[in-house]
Amino acid sequence: MLKDDCIFCKIIKGEIPSQKVYEDGDMLVFKDIEPKAKVHLLAVPKDHYKLLSELDKNRSAALCRIMQKLPQIALDNGCKNGYRLVVNQGDDAGQTVFHLHIHILGGENLPWE
Ligand code: 5GP
Ligand code: ZN
Predict the structure, then answer these.
(1) Under 8 Å CB-to-CB from 104, ≥6 apart: which residues?
(2) Does the annotation count 101 as an active-site position?
């Protein structure tokens, strides 16, 4: 289910433009508007929920299919030597968009502090 006031739901519906790199029935992958690395993609499930604690059977199955596809998507988009996945969850993590998303970061050596 998509939500009218959610920016990522609007991107999924095509109401807000994005630089799409991959789409299937489970997810949309597009470039982050403020990249934090040379490659910075967002993999977004086509179901509106905020937190991993909201996973049910269907969402879990979809998220598993999504995770299985990320290595090839990362490779196809310039992550030749690895990549980092980040899932910000809630306030302490600084989550700003309340629709679950996986950051894919790479294309360069990433600092780890
Ligand atoms: P969060 O901080 O919630 O983990 O990540 C949200 C991400 O969404 C941020 O990296 C931000 O740059 C990105 N973002 C926010 N609005 C838009 C948008 O309209 N288009 C795109 N492509 N990315 C967005
Ligand atoms: Zn949403």
Answers:
(1) 29, 39, 40, 41, 42, 43, 70, 73, 74, 77, 79, 83, 84, 85
(2) yes
d(CA 87, CA 4): 23
Q: What's phi and psi for 34, nearest 5 deg? A: -125, 80
Q: Can you give the pLDDT of all 113 residues of the chain as single tens digits? A: 889 999 999 999 999 999 999 999 999 999 999 999 999 999 999 999 999 999 999 999 999 999 999 999 999 999 999 999 999 999 999 999 999 999 999 999 999 98
Q: Whose CA is nearest to atom 12 of ligand 1?
A: 34
